[in-house]
Amino acid sequence: MLLLLTACLAAVHPIPGTQPQQLLGQVAFELPQDWEVVVNNRAFGNHHVLLRSPPAQQAVVTIDLVREGRRTRELDLRIVAETYALDRGRSLDIEAKLLAHHQLEVADREAWAVTVQRRHGPNEQLASTVALRGSEHLALLTLSTPLEAGVAAAVPWGQILDSFALPGDPVDPNAPIFPRDAELENELDGLPSGGL
User: Reduced to 3 states, what is the DSSP secondary structure of residue 75?
Assistant: First the structure.
């Protein structure tokens, strides 16, 4: 009985009177116009939200906030993002091919975007996953669209990413967003100048 009650808790709640609609919980974001929240739950510290576009855009966005174990936290974020994107659906015989990955800033944090092409039988799909870390959680935002409809969802996807936040997990304003880049800059600053 307790398990059923726990699984029914909402991960996000609408903020009344906001336009575009804002949703708030452990994560916060703007809901693009004409999009709807289809799944909204949390259980055992993990959060799962599924958004669906209007039929013309044919897009689905999942937002997962999962507790990150110590071993995973020690891995480079790029590796975690690529592994998640390529492994998703493997148990269902969905093939995934890495198309691109790049580093970006989301919610004032380092994030990695990974785009894959998925194939299951005759169906092909583009999926772009953005991974970022909070203090205890890994946030994974994934846009999935049919191969031919990928461009139509670009603007709402950008709106979700631009508005995404982890309100209960503030960022240290003095910490560098891209720590590896800051380490390299410090190393370069320590080198003698003037050439050979």
Answer: coil
